[in-house]
Q: What sequence folds into this?
């Protein structure tokens, strides 16, 4: 089922999340399937639970259109990041129409639980790193509007999202 995506200034995007408990119950498993349908429908590359109104510490990385993987990150933590920063244009499904330059560490190591509750660790300096950082920010109540160095598109929409 395609879920509605929450837009700023909705307060759910700024509320703390709760860690997901294991084993996953059927509602969380269904939510992950619905999040996949939603991110595909929205032409996104990642989606965090707060973006669909849930205070859960989980997100989905969807990189199939770039030849990358698709997987959930549950209770994720970035455990290491490089000092080298990279500036790339980003957008956000919770701020449609706004794009801008965001600086992030080039390389990260992220630990998370998979759907079986098994700890996974990934070190990456490509799209997985970029999307994981964006989605973990959502889980920490941080959005690109907080990190934009320069707006490249949609400047006129910012007041709507800054209420």
A:
């Amino acid at each position: 089922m395609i879920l509605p995506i929450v837009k700023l200034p909705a307060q759910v995007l700024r509320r703390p999340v709760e860690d997901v408990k294991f084993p996953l119950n059927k509602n969380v498993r269904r939510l992950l399937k619905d999040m996949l349908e939603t991110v595909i429908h929205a032409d996104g590359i990642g989606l965090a639970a707060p973006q669909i109104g849930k205070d859960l510490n989980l997100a989905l990385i969807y990189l199939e259109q770039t030849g990358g993987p698709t997987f959930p990150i549950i209770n994720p933590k970035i455990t290491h990041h490089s000092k080298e920063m990279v500036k790339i244009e980003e957008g956000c499904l919770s701020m449609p129409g706004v794009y801008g330059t965001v600086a992030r560490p080039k390389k990260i190591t992220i630990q998370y639980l998979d759907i079986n509750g098994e700890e996974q660790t990934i070190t990456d300096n490509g799209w997985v790193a970029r999307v994981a950082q964006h989605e973990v920010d959502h889980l920490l109540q941080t959005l690109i509007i907080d990190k934009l160095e320069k707006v490249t598109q949609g400047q006129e929409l910012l007041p709507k999202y800054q209420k």
